[in-house]
Amino acid sequence: MFTSRPNSIQKVGFSEKWLKWSELKQYQLLVDVPQINCDVKAGKIINPEFVVKCPAGCQDPKYHVYGTDVYASYSSVCAAAVHSGVLDNSGGKILVRKVAGQSGYKGSYSNGVQSLSLPRWRESFIISGETTKAYQNPSVPGTTAEPVTLMQVPGTTLVKATHTTLPKPSLSAGSTTSSPRLQPVGHRSWELDLWSTITYTSSQNSPRGNPDCKVDLSFLMDGSASIGKRRFRIQKQFLADIAQALDIGPAGPLMGVVQYSDNPATQFNLKTHMNSQDLKAAVEKITQRGGLSNVGRAISFVTKNFFSKANGNRGSAPNVAVVMVDGWPTDKVEEASRIARESGINIFFITIEGAVENEKQYVMEPNFANKAVCRTNGFYSLSVQSWFSLHKTVQPLVKRVCDTERLACSKTCFNSADIGFVIDGSSSVGTGNFRTVLQFVANLSKEFEISDTDTRIGAVQYTYEQRLEFGFDMYSTKSDILNAIKRVGYWSGGTSTGAAISYALEQLFKKSKPNKRKLMILITDGRSYDDIRIPAMAAYHKGVITYAIGIAWAAQDELDIIASYPAKDHAFFVDEFDNLYKFVPKVIQNICTEFNSQPRN
After folding, report:
1. What confidence score (pLDDT) does residue 166 get?
2. CATH code of the domain containing 247
3. 96 and 14, same structural domain?
4. DSSP-assigned beta bridge partners for residue 259
5. CA distance 153 to 50
6. SS3 string of 226-271?
7. Does a structural domain hold residue 422?
8. VWFA domain location, by residue (predicted)?
9. Of 5, 187, 310, 561, which has the fewest Cβ atoms less than 10 A away?
10. Rounded CA gap, 290 and 300, in Å?
11. Residue 365, Cβ density class (10 Å: 0-12 exposed, 13-18 middle, ≥19 buried)
């Protein structure tokens, strides 16, 4: 192709950078081969076929390649060329052809490059080294060489070359048309288009998803009759935009959709679509159900059915439900939402075109959004005045959903505490009963989700003296904790409970994480030999919630002093060691009731 583009300027993709051509004479042939960096991915270049020069050093493992022979366009072009054997690590020219996306890409080790496997990708490419014909200079008499200067595009340089400038054709006498354009030997139009139409697109989503936004997300979309077909289409476009912005993938966010009306129905679950493109295509196929806006029923459905392992719930990712409501619900949401929150689901509400003053009489449950959301501090609620401005909430919503540190409802009574057991090992307990106490400690510990980021367990044994059996940071799995409890040896001695509380505050709870609830569970079988009032007050001032469990000869008045207020919910008396196991459900229930009664502001 011959080019006549004096002083032409071309915008490069979405990067707001400009590629400026020098003044090109008519019929000038561009034969420079652009050099790209090792990290440039094939998907960044829109041409279906192109020639580039790769630098040396692209064998480095930091340049990722996906596939074998046929590569996903998320791969480094030059690293793929080394993997394929077309180039060695010294670089060179290659011909790249785009082909259709594959349902899977198999990784392999070849020529010093380890390529990775990938389930699927939307576009592929293949590589060959046959570039000679494509760049054969035309042999035209009377031509001269003249360099052309280009402003460098990020990630590219120009291989130094000369350009062949062809003479302007003369017009025949009386002719009103120019002579036909000369065609260079062996030329194909796409070669020149590499620079005349090359576009660096906006950054592609990772095939693994955004690891900084690892959440399991359910969108509850409004399929009621009141929304109408046009607004339903706007809602679908909004979901597609959200999917694109989130960057869906197995290492990042996963997303499913539930449509509600009279009754809810899952359109697709968390494991159905593993990338944004597939998910967007699935959203496009959703059809409106019609009926009422039974939001409460939909929230109950999601709590009971959606966030299950069978549906792709990962357990390690926060559960988020985003509820979209046109106007207001036709049923009550408060009780269903409370159960969802206590199950660890972070509920967000997007209310579009909410009730105006003269419509509020029709709203079944006033202030329904605040009764539903995880917290009433405004973080979980978005109010949109018009469906036609819904698109403005895409980025604010994505930012909030991905802020996992603020997803407060992910923290439940089972995964948000540092629990320190303070165990009486005095002589009156005895070896057999001490093993029974340890079994009680193990049974309580089993109920919690234990990890470095969830609930952590520590233990202190005391007589006249105190001993740290293990701290909060020593074991991070449930099996390790249970084994550590089994290994605790019986000490024997006196009963200095006050000193034990002080020791636990210093050796255990001083190292508690700031975002953890601090729970002390003290187990004793007798009256303390020392003062308990001052240590108990110190525990209160340090924010430690204390449960006191007395057995046999323990004094109820002391248990009430040690326990947090109200004592009736935190102090328990057991007549025999063998009946300790009966109190496991009661202790767990009280811990969770107290947790769930915290203010939601």
Report:
1. 31
2. 3.40.50.410
3. yes
4. 221, 265
5. 16
6. HHHHHHHHHHHHHHHHHHHHHCCCCCCCEEEEEEECCCCEEEECCC
7. yes
8. 216-401, 418-587
9. 310
10. 19
11. middle
pLDDT digits (tens, 9 = 90+) for 434-462: 999 999 999 999 999 898 878 999 999 99
CA distance 118 to 65: 10
- Residue 378 phi/psi, 5-degree rounding, is 95, -15
Q: Please name the residues in contact with 238: beta carbons below 8 A apart, sequence gap of 6 or more.
A: 324, 390, 391, 393, 394
Strand order in the sheet with 417-424: 466-470, 456-462, 417-424, 517-524, 544-551, 571-574
Based on the number of CB atoms within 10 Å of its own CB, is 555 exposed (0-12), middle (13-18) or buried (19 or more)? middle
Structural domains in the chain (count): 3
Mean per-residue pLDDT over the chain, rounded: 83
3-state secondary structure of 2: coil
Q: Which of 363, 385, 409 is the last residue before a domain boundary? A: 409
Higher-confidence residue of 536 and 131: namely 536
Q: Give 319-344 as a DSSP string.
A: EEEEEEEES--SS--HHHHHHHHHTT
Residue 201 lies in a domain: no
Domain that includes residue 246, residue range: 211-409
Residue 420 has pLDDT above 90, yes or no: yes
* Euclidean distance between CA atoms 322 and 320, whole angstroms: 7
540 and 455 within one domain:
yes
Q: Please indicate, yes or no, if residue 504 is contained in any of the structural domains.
A: yes
Give residue 572's pLDDT.
97
CA separation (Å) from 504 to 116, 348, 476, 519, 570? 50, 39, 19, 11, 18
d(C-alpha 341, C-alpha 454), whole Å: 17
Q: Is 362 exposed, middle or buried (0-12, 13-18, 19+ CB in 10 A)?
A: exposed
Confidence class of residue 207 from pLDDT cuts 50, 70 and 90?
Answer: confident
Strands 466-470, 517-524: pairing is unpaired
Residues 426, 405 share a domain: no
Q: Mark out the alpha helices in 285-329 (DSSP H runs).
A: 295-301
Separation of alpha carbons 249 and 208, rounded Å: 5
Q: Determine the Cα–Cα distance for residues 448 and 521; give it in Å rounded to an integer.
A: 14
Q: Is residue 174 part of a domain?
A: no
